[in-house]
Amino acid sequence: MIPLLILCPLILLAALGAVWKARPVHAALLLALALSLIAVLYLALGGGFIGLVQFMVYVGGIAILIVFSLLITRPGDEGEEVARRPKSVALGAACVVPVLGALLYTFGKGLPEPAEGAAPSVPLEKLGDQLFTTGLPAVLAVAVLLTAVLIGAAMFARDFGKNSEPPADS
Amino acid sequence: MKKPVLTLMLSLGMSALVMAGETGPLVTAESLPRLPQRLVEMLLAAVGGPEWLVQLGGMAAAAGTVVGVFLGAFALLSLIERKVLARVQNRLGPNRAGWFGILQPVADGIKMLTKEDIVPAKAEALLHFLAPVLIVVPAVLALGVIPYGREWVPVNLDLGLVLFFAVGAMTEVAIFMAGWSSGSKFPMLGAMRAISQMVSYELPLMLAALAVVMMAGTVSLSGIVDDQGGFVLGFIPKWNILTPWGLVAGLVFLIAGVAESNRTPFDLPEGESEIVAGHMTEYSGFKYALFFMGEYLGLFAISGLGITLFLGGWQAPLPGLGFVPTWIWFFGKLAAVIFFFLWIRATYPRVRIDQLMRFAWLFLIPVGLLTLPVAAVWHYTGRGLLGWVLCGAMLVVPYAILTVLYNRRMAPATRRYQFVE
Amino acid sequence: MNPLAVLLTLSALLFALGLLGVLTRRNAILILVGIELMLNAANLNFIAFWRYGPPEAALTGPTMVLFSIAIAAAEAAVGLAIILMVFRHTKSTDLNKLDSLRG
């Protein structure tokens, strides 16, 4: 309970920075911070493997990808000027507040008594068993999806490189 | 002032005697590296510390042992590397500070510490400060999960291997922060090179490790070492490198590991003839030393992981050598692997960035993927002669095809460089 | 205090923040940042209910999160690839400028 109460405000602050900061790279780095704090939260809740995977994929993969594309597209220092567009922010907030209210209302309505006691663990063997028995179709679907993404990314990279390649000397 | 110290020493000695009487000798050759931990635990227990304090102190001492050992190794390596490179290149190397230059690391350290700490005017001060710290932390964390001996596992985690790769993700973020926060061109270029290289070479690294996980049936590093115990025919150790899939996975791991630790021939991120020092260009003094340290600790960590996964960890290479403490085997192997890295560095020229990426994506990753089915075949054909024949065929044929394709498409051609847009 | 309630509130707030980011940002990549936050809010719910929910739901939460993370990785890769392709043609990642289909 205590790590939870420490982590939650930190996560929210980092997330707020990620959506509010004007400089894109700052926003991306704060996203990485928020995601790694969520990974720590998972670890604190006893989901060892899930927390590590969250860190590996989100921080090592997705945050890095986002940062890297920011560098390639060079948004420069003109920034995002979120704070300077009160109209769009007001509009956004007008959409967000009902959603937030609905979420909080639903969550608060039929809340079960939490099962107290020691954190349940994630035994890797059991997780693997479940993945390759009841979860097999889903695993296959994800495998196909990831393969398609890999091939697509490779084709994309080839196209991307083709146009910027210097003419060969001959 | 003297009296409390005396009492403390006395009580410590007493408790040591008591413990020796209860549980055998205080320290054997095997558990020598755990002596600091036990001493601290005993000391805290002797002064009446609560249970959690004793445990915490013991853990801190265990961590301190690892960090101390590897900082010493880092200092030593910085000298040995220069000596070995000098020998290969027919020079003398550092030989002024102390006998055979043995005090050179000390001199280097003093030089680094007394240099001015410069933060460029255009730098983002906070990120610029955090980057060198964040680069050392994952290396130390990764060193903490490796089993160095039968009784010397600083943190024995069930998820050791996963943790090793997870903390590796932090390095990339740190390198990006270093490159971007410096507010200058060369660090930016170096960081982009470093990140693309690390992302690309992390995949073959993980695939190679995955084959081992598949065969050992565990991601606990101690479990993987235990799995490699014993001997075939009474004298050939059961190390993973001595199986067909393990040989290939081990070579993939070796190459990817060299790239992952940014060493020649894959040291493009800091290619000094191209982009000054990459992401470290704008750093000086102690922060530069931290980068240097993070790099070498990372090298130790990745070599240690390679030894654990493929070279049998702390297992002895021949039967009948059980009287030698197991951690000596580990550090012997580590020295051999590190020497191999130095040898590579002295031998090969730096590759080009497009060669680097193509090699990872078109060669290493397919070969890494191949090791998984080969490992399965090895397992189901009884891990014997039949396995060698089948697995050999499964490996050699795709290898030949890949090589032909790779050579035909990627043969060296004359290239003219111009800046892109 | 009920830890489940704390976690659910956190997840709701995270989702709202992500949505706010998606609605107010102009840079396509930063919109992706908002989407990642929303995805994580959903994952957090799975973990929260697995940890504090009824015991018969053993391991369903982590399994779902594992799939969700894998799909999020694919989503980010595809999304960024699309954004980079758009950037090649228009030299901009500002979504307000991508109005060539406007009648």
Structural class call of chain C reads mainly alpha
Helix content of chain A: over 70%
Mean pLDDT of chain A: 78
**CATH architecture call of chain C:** Orthogonal Bundle
Judged by helices, strands and strand pairing, the structural class of chain A is mainly alpha
The CATH architecture category of the largest domain in chain A equals Up-down Bundle
**Low-confidence parts of chain C, pLDDT < 50 over ≥5 residues?**
none
* Shape category of chain C: elongated
Structural summary, described in words:
The complex is a heterotrimer of chains A (170), B (421) and C (103). By secondary structure, chain A is an all-alpha fold. Chain A contains 6 helices and no strands. In chain A, helix 1 packs antiparallel against helix 2 and helix 2 packs antiparallel against helix 3. The longest helix of chain A is centred in the last third of the chain and has 29 residues. Chain A is globular, with a radius of gyration of 21 Å. Chain A starts with a helix and ends in a 6-residue tail after the last helix. Chain B is mostly helical and 421 residues long. Chain B has 2 domains: 79 residues, no CATH class; 256 residues, no CATH class. Helices cover 68% and strands 1% of the residues of chain B. Chain B has a two-stranded antiparallel ribbon. In chain B, strand 1 and strand 2 form a beta hairpin. The radius of gyration of chain B is 24 Å and the shape is globular. In chain B, 39% of the residues are buried. The model of chain B has no long low-confidence stretch (mean pLDDT 83). With 103 residues, chain C is an all-alpha fold. Chain C has a single domain, classed as Orthogonal Bundle (Helix Hairpins), CATH 1.10.287.3510. Chain C contains 3 helices and no strands. In chain C, helix 2 runs antiparallel to helix 3. The relative contact order of chain C is 0.13. The mean pLDDT of chain C is 83. Chains in contact: A-B, A-C. At the A-C interface, helix 1, helix 2, helix 3, helix 4 and helix 5 of A face helix 1, helix 2 and helix 3 of C.
